[in-house]
Amino acid sequence: MSERAGGQESKAGRRLAEQLAAQKAAEAKRRRQAWAGAFAGVAVVAVLITVFVIVGQRGDDSPEQAAGTPSPSAEVPTDPGAPPAPPLPQGADPALGSKPTVAAGEGELTKLTVTPLIEGTGPKVEAGQSITTNYVGVFFENGEEFDSSWVRGQPATFPIGVGQVIEGWDKGLVGVTVGSRVQLDIPAEQAYGDGEGGRPGGPLRFVVDILAAE
Fold first, then answer.
1. For position 106, what pLDDT does the model report?
2. CA distance 200 to 193
3. Is 185 among the catalytic positions?
4. For residue 178, which of 28, 83, 171, 212 sits 20 to 30 Å off, Cα-Cα?
């Protein structure tokens, strides 16, 4: 073999070796990139899991607690829109500060019936006095409420025993002591009769609190 031919073979061998080296380097680079991509994907997943866990933990709290407002165990008004409690006579039963629940009556009502529910310790109401009361009025037969001073948030004051109110009130409240709560079951003829003029008709039931008399 001539020197020229040997030189050509040597150059070809070097080129082949360079190509092989380049291919190995390219493969190694691709492997490094693949590993880097896989590592980055794992890192992203780990970050997302951490975020979901944190958000999930915060989601267990109510919006009010997250905002820093009191929990339900804190002392807050249960009904901010409720009317203020009425001023009670000295030594009166605290129950007079809450609206009573009034149920329907039973049977046929034939006469005025006064039932003491709370006994007051004040003076007795006299005919001709002005009395201050809280009251709830319902239909005797079904217990449906038709009037209440509690809803208006203002006790009612009126003369008693002089014909300024229905007969059942005039006769039923005179002699009751201040600070009392009484139930008045009033037949239609001592109330508003058949209810002409939009007034409640038929037998009625009132629960009345006597707050003052003068």
1. 95
2. 8
3. no
4. 83
DSSP character at residue 177: B
SS (H, E, C) 43-85: HHHHHHHHHHHHHHHHHCCCHHHHCCCCCCCCCCCCCCCCCCC
**pTM of the entire predicted model:** 0.61
Q: Of 61-75, 81-95, 123-137, 159-173, give the lowest mean pLDDT range.
A: 61-75
Facing residues of 156 across strands? 133
In 3D, which of 114, 115, 152 has the Cα closest to residue 133? 152
Model confidence at 91, in pLDDT bands (50, 70, 90)? Answer: confident
Q: Which residue has the tokens 């829109």?
A: 81
Among the options 131, 135, 160, 210, which is catalytic? Answer: 135
Helices (H) and strands (E) in the chain, counts: 4, 6
147 labelled catalytic: yes
Q: Which of 162, 85, 154, 87 is nearest to 125 (CA)?
A: 162
Spatial neighbors of 14 by CB under 8 A, at least 6 apart, are none
In sequence order, the β-bridge partners of residue 207 are 136, 183
What pLDDT digit, counting tens, does each position of 69-90 carry?
322 222 333 445 555 556 888 8
Averaged pLDDT, 88-105: 93
Active site residue 192: yes
The answer to whether 61 is a known catalytic residue is no
User: For a pLDDT cut of 90, what percent of the chain falls above it?
Assistant: 55
Backbone φ and ψ of 73, nearest 5°: -75, -15
